[in-house]
Write a structure and sequence with these properties.
Elements (H helix, E strand, L loop, with lengths): L3 H11 L20 H15 L5 H6 L3 H12 L2
Helix pairs in contact: 1-2
Length: 77
Amino acid sequence: MVSDRLKQVILKVLGLPEMELREEMLASEVPGWDSLSHVTVLAAVEKEFGVRFSGLEVMRLKNIGDLQKLVTKKAAG
């Protein structure tokens, strides 16, 4: 499940109204989430959750669910 906190960060960065974000969704399926905004979204997620992603971790992300799992893992320490 995509947490409300992660969802709100993504929607805020992309300037989107309330919408459903599902784990299996790809970034390309979210309006405005393109290669340029990708870095901004990830930076905002890092700041919100107090975590840092490596380049390899970012490259392995396939969908929003993977991002949620990575955030949960990193935030847990």
